[in-house]
Request: fold
Amino acid sequence: MFEFAFNSFYEAIYMNGHGIYVWSVLAIVCLSLLVFFTLYSSKIKQIKKKLNEPN
Amino acid sequence: MIKKFIHQFASPKTYLFQVNKFYNYIFFISVFIYISSITWGLLFTPEDFVQGNSFRIIYLHVPASFISQSLYAAMAVSSIVYLVWRVKLAAYLVIAIAPIGAMTTFIALISGSIWGIPTWGTWWQWDARITSTLILFIMYLGLISFHNSFSNYEKADKLLSWLVIVGAVNIPIIKKSVDWWSTLHQSASITLTNKPSIDPSMLYPLIGSIIGFFGLILCLVLLSSKNQILIREKTKSWIKDYV
Reply:
């Protein structure tokens, strides 16, 4: 069950021509998550900073 | 009694302190589960006999698709809680979930389209499953714009909740579209009632990726709701102590 499914690193990237589809989807998912985590974290920091400012 | 229970545990203040307590645990456990399951699925599962290596997109597409629908269901439940028991936190959750729901639906649509190129020979087909998912994406965007168009938060929350409940009719349609109509999209590989139609070597990483992705999305919902609470409760005295 935990055997590497490919014979080489290149084969894992290429995936018999399907690598471009698989890796691009992975990139989209990671990028979307990264953007949202960064966006919300920075928004919270901004609000906290604003609330801490003396009136 | 139920009302008292809900109000006690759903006060924005209690929620915010609980979120801070558990957020890091949920985040790091989810990251670990997601990365290991994705690595397992993309590199260690055998190639599919029919689809070849393109089937590996399942580990990215299915979690996004499943969670995009679950998030809408969560919004509908929160809307009911808000309208019935007037729990403010439920209203904050509805609008906090919407952008994340839009993002997961976007991932589901894009990953499905990319998967369609090598398997179906087309990136788009106006079939029932794909079209109803596109409608879900448009609904998420519409709900966000609708809420943002109001200056009165209370009125916006109330109307948004009603709209979310009405729109919930799309969720069973998406779910059942592959059974009700003849579609290009395959039927569900995992159901609660039937034995999974995929091999365990492919199934376990899929379950892991769904759990891991769910955890990460939960973290995003927690951050987004925290953001909403800080904006909406900024005049409250306890917020000053919190910040």
